[in-house]
């Protein structure tokens, strides 16, 4: 009977011990989550940080640091475009082929809209690999980088102070009101004059702009209202109906818009 009591006592004691041990372990797990190292007092700061980094795993990496250039220095610039100055006989196609780029690329870099327009002495930006043309502002002129090649100066037209001034007059309006025969006769009684840009008009909105045509002293030219082929003595307006009538004014102005002479159709 005493032996049985002893066995029961031992079994009960083992159950109590196991329960106490399980309770202690459960409490420990709650206070110390799995995976984090135990840092004891007195551990150096570096060792503590190393322990935390090790526990966090490879995903915990330092954030990248942006290094700015020292004061007074700037980042390296992008590719610099080549500047080509057009010569006689050049076309956008020949320039593009010489530099191994496309015509469209040159037009975009220079803000050009017509591939057939190229002037002698015109500076062209040749976009090299990686070059991005600046964004154009609507209505603004295209930006062309500075270049060491100086653009040749454009010729300046000057008048000869010893040359007599032009003195043009309208001497006649022939067959006013008859389209096939209607014409205005102009005579130069002064020095030689180039009629390029001069205008002939009436007071109702009809306007004719003269082409490049030189009239010497005593020279004469007829402006026909109808269509035809221009010559040195006869110019053709190309109107579909007569312009002049009795009492109407014929106004002749120079290239600057200054009224030179007025004639009233009789």
Question: Can you put this structure into words, describing what you see?
Answer:
The protein is of the alpha+beta class and 266 residues long. Among the domains are: 79-150, Membrane-bound Lytic Murein Transglycosylase D, Chain A, CATH 3.10.350; 168-264, Immunoglobulin-like (Sandwich), CATH 2.60.40. The protein has helices at residues 2-31, 45-56, 92-99, 103-110, and strands at 82-85, 123-126, 168-174, 183-188, 193-194, 199-201, 207-209, 214-215, 220-224, 234-236, 249-253, 259-264. It has a four-stranded mixed beta sheet with strand order 3-4-9-10, with no helix packed on it. The protein is rod-shaped, with a radius of gyration of 48 Å.
Distance between the termini: 162 Å
Extract low-pLDDT stretches: 36-43, 59-78, 134-159
- The structure class reads alpha+beta
At CATH's second level, what is the architecture of the domain at 168-264? Sandwich
CATH evolutionary superfamily of the domain at 168-264: Lamin Tail domain
What are the secondary-structure elements, in order, as H or E? HHEHHEEEEEEEEEEE
Give the integer mean of the pLDDT values. 75
Biggest β-sheet: count, sense, barrel?
Answer: 4 strands, mixed
Main sheet strand line-up: 3-4-9-10
What fold name goes in the CATH topology slot of the domain at 168-264?
Immunoglobulin-like
Rg from alpha-carbon coordinates? 48 Å
In the CATH scheme, the class of the domain at 168-264 would be: Mainly Beta
Percent of residues in helices comes to 10-25%
- The best one-word shape is rod-shaped
């Amino acid at each position: 009977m005493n032996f049985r009591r002893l066995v029961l006592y031992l079994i009960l004691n083992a159950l109590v011990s196991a329960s106490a041990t399980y309770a202690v372990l459960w409490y420990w797990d709650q206070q110390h989550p799995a995976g984090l190292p135990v840092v004891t007092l007195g551990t150096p700061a570096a060792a503590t940080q190393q322990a935390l980094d090790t526990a966090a795993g490879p995903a915990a990496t330092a954030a990248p640091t942006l290094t700015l250039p020292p004061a007074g220095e700037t980042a390296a610039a992008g590719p610099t475009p080549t500047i080509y100055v057009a010569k006689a006989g050049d076309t956008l196609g020949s320039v593009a082929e010489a530099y191994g780029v496309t015509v469209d690329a040159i037009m975009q870099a220079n803000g050009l809209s017509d591939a057939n327009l190229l002037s002698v002495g015109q500076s062209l930006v040749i976009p090299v690999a990686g070059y991005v043309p600046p964004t154009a502002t609507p209505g603004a002129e295209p930006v062309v980088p500075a270049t060491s090649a100086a653009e040749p100066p454009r010729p300046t037209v000057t008048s000869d102070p010893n040359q007599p001034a032009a003195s043009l007059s309208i001497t006649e309006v022939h067959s006013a009101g008859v389209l096939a025969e209607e014409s205005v006769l102009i005579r130069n009684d002064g020095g030689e004059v180039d009629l390029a840009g001069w205008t002939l008009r009436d007071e109702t909105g009809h306007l004719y702009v003269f082409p490049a045509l030189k009239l010497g002293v005593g020279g004469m030219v007829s402006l026909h209202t109808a269509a035809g082929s221009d010559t040195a003595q006869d110019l053709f307006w190309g109107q579909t109906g007569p312009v002049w009538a009795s009492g109407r004014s014929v106004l002749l102005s120079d290239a600057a818009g200054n009224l030179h002479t007025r004639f009233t159709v009789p």
